[in-house]
């Protein structure tokens, strides 16, 4: 992985070294404290250049979706009152390239299928994870163009691993409020204030090209701000779960990739 990952800075290829242990412990501590760990420059500049070229070529294989959704990624029940965060709808538009449309020798695929990266993520997270058993959603590349955006939402999984490939001309910031809710307290008042435009507690996380981000999005609401300009935003999304055999639902695959198989 030395040609793809900056192993001098991030020694995922040396799991018995002190440097590896220090790195894994750092990520684990950051996740425990804030729910996010950011590894800037994880991928080498040469590999980033190749990732950008591959993303441009593969974007034509993607499915463009333009949908309305709630922050909870589910249809609201009838018992929720009008104006409640559970009944708030927002706009999401992006193009997603499914796993089976990403070339077998692509850098993004090399990373996702790397056992070295998987072992490191296990150690950084502090528990065992498995790649998705999903030919569409296991790995995907999201391309976002002028006017595209990702509405405020919570993830339905414990964590997400993403790789920044290219930033948009302007806009496209990854914004979040970390730990806005807990397992026992939804803190709907705080979510409602955000949805009404109060961004006083919003943090913008750096997602420069080559950055690997580990993010616990189940309790931290987040969005991708509207894209502006000619340059698209490219991000790779790696699918993992605590249990083997995980596959995205047929409905989610249909919405995101325009097909379920």
Molecular structure report:
α1 crosses α4. The strands form four sheets. This protein has a seven-stranded antiparallel β-sheet with strand order 1-11-7-14-5-3-2. A four-stranded antiparallel β-sheet has the order 6-12-9-10, with no helix packed on it. Helices cover 25% and strands 25% of the residues. The chain has 261 residues and is α+β, with helices and mostly antiparallel strands. It contains six helices and 15 strands. The chain starts with 17 loop residues before the first helix and ends with a helix. The model has no long low-confidence stretch (mean pLDDT 96). The chain is globular and about 55 Å long. It has one domain: q2cbj1_9rhob like domain (Jelly Rolls).
Secondary-structure map:
Elements: H1 18-34, E1 36-39, H2 45-58, E2 63-69, E3 90-97, H3 107-112, H4 115-125, E4 130-131, E5 139-144, E6 150-153, E7 160-166, E8 170-171, E9 174-177, H5 188-195, E10 203-205, E11 212-215, E12 221-224, E13 227-228, E14 233-238, E15 240-241, H6 250-257
Antiparallel strand pairs: 1-11, 2-3, 3-5, 4-15, 5-14, 6-12, 7-11, 7-14, 8-13, 9-10, 9-12
Helix pairs in contact: 1-4
Quick overview of this protein structure:
The protein is of the alpha+beta class and 261 residues long. It is 25% helix and 25% strand. The model has no long low-confidence stretch (mean pLDDT 96).
Fill in the keyword field for this structure.
single chain; 261 residues; alpha+beta; 4-stranded antiparallel beta sheet; 15 strands
């Amino acid at each position: 992985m030395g040609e793809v990952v900056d192993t001098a800075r991030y020694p995922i290829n040396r799991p018995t070294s002190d440097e590896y242990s220090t790195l894994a412990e750092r990520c684990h501590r950051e996740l425990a404290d804030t729910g996010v760990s950011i590894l800037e420059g994880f991928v080498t500049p040469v590999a980033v250049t190749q990732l950008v070229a591959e993303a441009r070529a593969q974007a034509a294989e993607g499915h463009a979706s333009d949908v309305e959704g709630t922050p909870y990624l589910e249809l609201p029940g009838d018992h929720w009152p009008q104006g409640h965060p559970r009944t708030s709808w927002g706009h999401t538009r992006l193009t997603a390239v499914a796993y089976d449309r990403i070339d077998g020798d692509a850098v993004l695929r090399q990373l996702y299928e790397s056992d070295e990266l998987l072992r490191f993520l296990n150690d950084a997270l502090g528990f065992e994870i498995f790649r998705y058993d999903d030919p569409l959603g296991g790995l995907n590349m999201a391309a976002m163009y002028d006017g595209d955006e990702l509405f405020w939402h919570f993830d339905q999984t414990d964590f997400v691993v993403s790789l920044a490939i290219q930033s948009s001309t302007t806009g496209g910031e990854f914004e979040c409020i970390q730990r806005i809710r807990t397992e026992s307290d939804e803190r709907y008042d705080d979510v409602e204030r955000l949805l009404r435009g109060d961004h006083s507690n919003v943090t913008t996380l750096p997602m420069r090209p080559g950055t690997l981000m580990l993010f616990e999005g189940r309790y931290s609401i987040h969005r991708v701000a509207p894209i502006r300009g000619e340059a698209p935003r490219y991000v790779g999304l790696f699918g993992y779960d605590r249990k083997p055999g995980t596959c995205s639902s047929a409905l989610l695959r249909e919405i995101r990739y325009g097909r379920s198989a």
